[in-house]
Amino acid sequence: MFRRGHVCCGDQVLRASRRLHGDELLTVYRPAPPQERPMPEVPIVFRDEAIVVVDKPGDLTVHPTANAFSRTLTAFLQELAGGPFHPAHRLDRETSGLVICGRPGPVSAALKAQFSERSSRKIYVALVLGSFEAAREIVQPLDFARDSPIHIKMGVTCDGAAASSSFSPLQFNDLASLIICIPHTGRQHQLRAHLEWCGHPVCGDKIYGVPPEWFLEFIETGWTPELGQRLLFPRHMLHAAYLRIAHPVSGETLEFFTDVPADFRSACSHFGFECPPAEALLELLRTHVASS
Predict the structure, then answer these.
(1) What angle is formed at CA 236 by the lines to CA 69 and CA 229, rounded to 5 degrees?
(2) By CB atoms within 10 Å of each CB, which of 62, 107, 154, 289 scores lowest?
(3) What is the pTM of this model?
(4) Residue 124: beta bridge partners?
(5) What is the number of other CB atoms lying within 10 angstroms of the CB of residue 42?
């Protein structure tokens, strides 16, 4: 907005470096966002009077942003019969998979408490670059990457917040690997940042493991054939497949699973992998929950 001259003080166009001293009257011009694409189908995995669990598509923002207002998961939940429901946690826009949401008030608070106290269990499946041949646990603190022009990018820093993730390979070759990811903490972009740090960024990631100019280009132009040649896939291949959590009202242990979507299986095929069928994948994830 600064670059386009949309921030003014009186009749003076301001630069982002302008220091404010107080009592200035600023005018900020924000053009109406472009017409949003239609809302994709959001499958409902489970639903009762207190909670709803959805399978978020890999191209849907959870909360409104500058470029997404009505095409968001929260907008979908507002219109859902029996709602509104509030997401108890979030997934990045391009991450597909399970999101549990609760009625506002005590139910929502109880769900969020389980995530903050780390009593819930989440497991992701990812397609990453390079040969990931052995299981490993990464315990590296994360904070905003101060040397990156991408303001939302996280990185390993000595003074960051504690972050721990476990990774196990399912299939691998010289080009890529299909792996299981378990976050033990809930930092922003944790799995993606840890995987970049260990040299195995998520395939299709526009922020981690690629030059920052690629993401900045995407912000300016959107998806283009040129970006497609470099990134291979329109989104990063990270899928939240498994969730175990206590029901916020009854206390019953609930287990949810959603199979990887078609674009994920297609990406696996690109590297010569055959992703396990749903039942076999669920058993693999249950085994990792029992051992974690």
Answers:
(1) 110
(2) 289
(3) 0.88
(4) 181, 240
(5) 15
Known catalytic membership, residue 92: yes
User: Which entry of 55, 92, 259, 263 is annotated as an active-site residue?
Assistant: 92
- On the CB side of 91, CA atoms within 13 Å amount to 29
Q: Which two tokens stand for residue 55?
A: 């399978």
Domains and CATH numbers, the chain: 1-31 (no CATH), 32-291 (3.30.2350.10)
Q: Any idea which of 2-11, 179-188, 209-218, 241-250 has the lowest mean pLDDT?
A: 2-11
Closest by CA to 194, choosing from 281, 136, 116, is 136
Q: How many helices (H) and strands (E) does the chain have?
A: 7, 15
Angle at the Cα of 188 (from 16 to 226), degrees rounded to 5? 70
On average, the pLDDT of the chain sits at 93
* Other beta carbons within 10 Å of 194: 27
**Shortest CA distance to 91 belongs to which of 67, 68, 57, 119?**
57
Q: Is 242 exposed, middle or buried (0-12, 13-18, 19+ CB in 10 A)?
A: buried
CA angle at 120 for the pair 83 and 109, rounded to the nearest 5°: 40
CB atoms within 10 A of CB 181: 25
- pLDDT tens digits, 49-79: 999 999 999 999 998 876 777 889 999 999 8
- pLDDT tier at 33, thresholds 50, 70, 90: low
